[in-house]
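Shape matters. Shown next:

___
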Amino acid sequence: MAQKTLPKYCPGCNNLLKVQRLYCDSCETNVEGLYELPLLARLDNESQKFIISFVKNSGSLKKMAKELGMSYPTVRNMLNEIIEKVDRFESIQNDESSNSQKE
């Protein structure tokens, strides 16, 4: 059976979801609250896989290009796109944080 992926966006309004409950299979403990998804968990699966590969390759885009069978500039562009996504998420998170502090 294929592993389910964590939904990140609401199917109704497309806003970012938050985690409300966590469950332990081992002891059946439930932890409830309202938690933000970690920044990296907000990225799409392809971006997450890229980051894992990046770390495993010690941050070497040259090694990644060889592993992926792509040119160095293509891999660099992929990294730049992920950096832009992270910057957007951080900007949104900072805006939400400053708005909640005003309330």
